[in-house]
Amino acid sequence: MKQPDWQSCSEKELWEFVASHLARKGINTVLVGGAVVSIYSDGAYRSGDLDFVLESIFNKELPNVLKEIGFEKKDSRHFKHPQCKHLFIEFQNPPVGIGDDTDIKADRVTVDGVSIKIFSPTDCIRDRLASYIHFRAREGLDQAVLVALKQPFNMKKVEQWCLSEGAGEAFQDFKQALKKGSD
After folding, report:
1. Which one of 60, 99, 115, 154 has the fewest beta carbons within 10 angstroms of its own beta carbon?
2. How does strand 49-54 pair with strand 72-73?
3. Is the model's pTM score more than 0.90?
């Protein structure tokens, strides 16, 4: 895969480049967090970083594999490319989870013959609502709505998850904001 334009690449371009490189080296990841919002909202939201969850315990080869494509280790979880000033990448150990739910089935995307993974639109919405529910972060609700307006998702699964988190009111807020956004 050809390198992205480091000065202007989108979250999607950087994700595809990094995740496919890692997958070719046997390091499988799932993209989660705000970068997923950026991808699913067609850039209406910009995250500033890409959050990857490793599918297996932290891989000691990760720094070397990232160095092959120009990334420098900044601390135990953060990596930066010297030419990419607007985005950095972060790695978290498994499991992939949203609130108490760790039974996540990530979507697969094929890039240059390699399968890489990303939160589904439904899981992205639940993830952003988790921020709204647990941290009272209004931007989490706004980001969930951005994704819901652009992508098909499972409303019932979002509702059931909110109820399981004891956050029926947050689901009502989401439905209201979604209605406003689609008017």
Report:
1. 60
2. unpaired
3. yes
